[in-house]
From TrEMBL:
It is a peripheral membrane protein. It holds the Pfam family OSCP. It comes from Selenomonas artemidis F0399. Its main location: membrane. GO terms for molecular function: hydrolase activity; proton-transporting ATP synthase activity, rotational mechanism. Keywords: ATP synthesis, Cell membrane, CF(1), Hydrogen ion transport, Hydrolase, Ion transport, Membrane, Transport. The gene is atpH. This is ATP synthase subunit delta. This protein is part of the stalk that links CF(0) to CF(1). It either transmits conformational changes from CF(0) to CF(1) or is implicated in proton conduction. F(1)F(0) ATP synthase produces ATP from ADP in the presence of a proton or sodium gradient. F-type ATPases consist of two structural domains, F(1) containing the extramembraneous catalytic core and F(0) containing the membrane proton channel, linked together by a central stalk and a peripheral stalk. During catalysis, ATP synthesis in the catalytic domain of F(1) is coupled via a rotary mechanism of the central stalk subunits to proton translocation. Belongs to the ATPase delta chain family. Signal peptide: none annotated. InterPro entries: ATP_synth_OSCP/delta_N_sf, ATPase_OSCP/dsu.
Length: 179
């Protein structure tokens, strides 16, 4: 709980700085770039989160990797996290920053789960339908679950729409069992 509170404070701080600088999209892209590297390279995450290594060494590595590749304020933010020994909450900071950013920009994130790989035409139709329902710009995050058999399950925030064959079969089974 304490880590989430810390992450929320730091995420709000970098979010407010991004808004002040009118660079919300750029900061978001830079934080996403750092997050991708953090995820793709577990050794980096382990190193930066390990209290046994000197902060100066960690900061030197971050400068070497990101200087010139991310906005100066984003790099300084990362260096601050190292100084305050908060790199272990970076992933949560990144997620919360994305939530705040999407809310500010009027973007709804829809998690869509399908049995197979939908084609781009289907995805675009689904995106347009969800945009008309939500009244917001929709960003799709795709997931696969072969157990769905067919159809799609959509989750936007706390709303869940199950249009899968598996979901329909379960609903029919529940109805038959109730009768």
């Amino acid at each position: 709980m304490l880590n989430m509170e810390l992450a929320r404070k730091y995420a709000r701080a970098i979010f407010e700085l991004a808004c002040e600088e009118d660079k919300l999209k750029e900061f978001g892209e830079d934080i996403a770039k750092v997050q991708r590297l953090y995820t793709d390279c577990p050794e980096l995450k382990s190193y930066l989160s390990n209290p046994n290594f000197q902060p100066e060494d960690k900061k030197s590595l971050l400068k070497e990797i990101f200087e010139g590749g991310v906005h100066e304020h984003v790099l300084n933010f990362l260096l601050l996290l190292v100084d305050k020994r908060r790199m272990h909450v970076f992933e949560a900071i990144s997620a919360i920053f994305n939530e705040l950013s999407n809310e500010k920009l009027g973007i709804a994130v829809a998690d869509i789960t399908t049995a197979g790989e939908p084609d781009e035409t289907q995805l675009e139709e689904l995106r347009k339908k969800l945009e008309s329902v939500t009244g917001k710009q929709v960003s799709l995050r795709r997931h696969r679950d072969p157990s769905l058999i067919g159809g799609v399950v959509v989750r936007i925030g706390d709303r869940r729409i199950d249009g899968s064959i598996k979901g329909r079969l379960e609903a029919m089974t529940a109805e038959l069992m109730a009768n």
